[in-house]
Each structure stands twice: as structure tokens, then as C-alpha cells.
Amino acid sequence: MRIDPKFTRRALIGGLAGSALAGCDAFQDSGAGRALLFSGEKAHQALQRTIMDRNALAREYAESEMSPVFRANGTRDPDTADYNAMAANGFADWVLTIGGLVERPMALSLAEIRNMPARTQITRHDCVEGWSAIGKWHGPPLSLLLKAAGLKTQARYALFRCADLYRGTPYYESIDLIDAFHPQTILAWAMNDALLPVANGAPLRLRVERQLGYKHAKYVQAIEIVDSLAPIGGGKGGYWEDRVGYDWYAGI
Ligand SMILES: Nc1nc2c(c(=O)[nH]1)N[C@H]1C(S)=C(S)[C@@H](COP(=O)(O)O)O[C@H]1N2
Ligand SMILES: [Mo]
């Protein structure tokens, strides 16, 4: 359904390089030819930067552009005994663990996470099912947590384990370290200027703004740093990837 970004990139860059060479033949050795070739090369570089820059920011919106209602999708309430008990207590006992290939495994309370420096961003969420919504998110950059834990050299992916079972199977997701350290990748604990509602992933959910909706894990309980996704779940790196073959890389 989606076009492989690598393929698009190659096709576009190949096309441009081709036209620059055609220009070279037509204006051989003339100043115009060199200028054309040079401008083609510049365009090529600019295009390459736009398409390949995984650190580029997702668009951010104004308050006036926020959706009046941010709908919920997938699990709207984990509704397990553990989760209900923690929700009843305002998630005072919620613990986020960070483990796997890290120097300093951590267990953080929600209070500690809420005391960390946070980023606020108004972004558009795009679900593969064909709806979008613009919402405001607030929480610490994932990079801060990962730097505190210290990644070992074999680290390649950040895996998110969620508190819900969706249709009986634990929801999980994973991203690579480029997305994990992207400046807009945050662990949000607030949405639209209020504490994150249960329907949208309370008390903590991932925002990974350059990716489609299913990558934004809700109800995050554990972050595991791993070197391979193969041994986890169905081996494809996420709930929907395992279940129906959605792309693991869902970059937008
Ligand atoms: N734990 C968990 N995370 C999840 C899901 C889910 O069912 N469980 N659904 C995903 C999908 S498909 C989307 S579009 C978004 C929906 O986020 P929202 O409920 O805040 O709209 O969460 C994603 N993260
Ligand atoms: Mo989705």
C-alpha cells in the first residue's frame, strides 16, 4: 500500500541525475551547461537532504488548529486488574522500567518522569485506518531517559511494552535509535493541557512524530533496549507488524 521510501528516493534521485547529464550533452563545455549541471547537483543535494534526513522535524501546528476532539483508537481502556488498581490510585504506583542493553537499568515513578524537563508539541497524528487528528503533547524527550540509562554499544532498537492486551495479545512496538533520539520523540504524560486520559494511553505514551499512528505505543510500562527484534513477539517488531504485516518502518 505504501511506497518503500528507499525506492522513491532512488527513483527521484536517479531521475534528476539523468536530466543533469542530458543537459551536459546539450550545452557541452558552455558556461550554461556547467551552470545547469551545477544547479542540478544542488537540487539533487537539497532533495537528498529533504528525503533522507531522518532528523527533520514533523510539522508543528498552532493552538487554533487543534482538533476539537482527539479520538481514541485500538485499546481505549486496558481494563486489567493491575491497571484498574493503578488507575484508581491516580497511577501513583506506576513504574516505568528501562532495561536491556543499558549501562544503568532504571525504574522511574511517574512523579520522577513528570519532574523531568519536558517538550510540548502540537502535531498531527495519522492512523493507517484513514483518520488524522491534531493534538498537543507534553513529556520528557525519550533521549533524556536513554542518556540517563546509557546505551551499550550493541544497542539498536528501543522496544516499548504496553500494559494492554489488544484482542488478547500484549501490545508492543519498537523504533530504531534514530527515531528514539529524534527531538520530537517524547514520552507524553499530558495531552491537550490535561493529564493523559485513559483512552489515549494513560499514564504514559510514546509520541514518535515522524511515524504512523500504530507506532505511538500507549500505556508504556517498560522500555527495553535490544539488538534484534527477531526473538520478540512474532519477530516483526510490533503488534500490527506481527498480526497483519504492517510495515515496521512507518515513516511519514
Ligand atoms: N498500547 C497500545 N498502543 C496503541 C494502540 C493500542 O491498541 N494499544 N493503538 C495504536 C493505534 S493503531 C493508534 S492510531 C494510536 C491511537 O492513539 P489514540 O488512542 O490516542 O488516538 O495508538 C496506537 N498505540
Ligand atoms: Mo492506527
Shape: globular
Cα-atom Rg, whole angstroms? 21 Å
Mean pLDDT equals: 87
CATH H-level name... which superfamily?
A: Oxidoreductase, molybdopterin-binding domain
Number of strands: 11
Polypeptide structure, described:
With 252 residues, this protein is of the alpha+beta class. The protein has a single domain (9-244), classed as Sulfite Oxidase, Chain A, domain 2 (Alpha-Beta Complex), CATH 3.90.420. It has seven helices and eleven strands. It has helices at residues 5-26, 31-52, 81-88, 110-114, 142-149, 177-180, 239-244, and strands spanning 95-100, 106-109, 119-127, 131-139, 157-166, 169-176, 185-188, 190-191, 194-195, 205-208, 220-226. The strands form three sheets. Strands 2-1-11-5-6 form a five-stranded mixed sheet. Residues 1-30 have low confidence and may be disordered. The structure holds the ligand Nc1nc2c(c(=O)[nH]1)N[C@H]1C(S)=C(S)[C@@H](COP(=O)(O)O)O[C@H]1N2 and molybdenum atom. The site of the ligand Nc1nc2c(c(=O)[nH]1)N[C@H]1C(S)=C(S)[C@@H](COP(=O)(O)O)O[C@H]1N2 has 18 residues, from strand 5.
Task: Please describe the topology of this protein.
Layout: H1 5-26, H2 31-52, H3 81-88, E1 95-100, E2 106-109, H4 110-114, E3 119-127, E4 131-139, H5 142-149, E5 157-166, E6 169-176, H6 177-180, E7 185-188, E8 190-191, E9 194-195, E10 205-208, E11 220-226, H7 239-244
Parallel strand pairs: 1-11
Antiparallel strand pairs: 1-2, 3-4, 4-8, 5-6, 5-11, 7-10, 8-9
Helix pairs in contact: 1-2
This protein binds the ligand Nc1nc2c(c(=O)[nH]1)N[C@H]1C(S)=C(S)[C@@H](COP(=O)(O)O)O[C@H]1N2 and molybdenum atom.
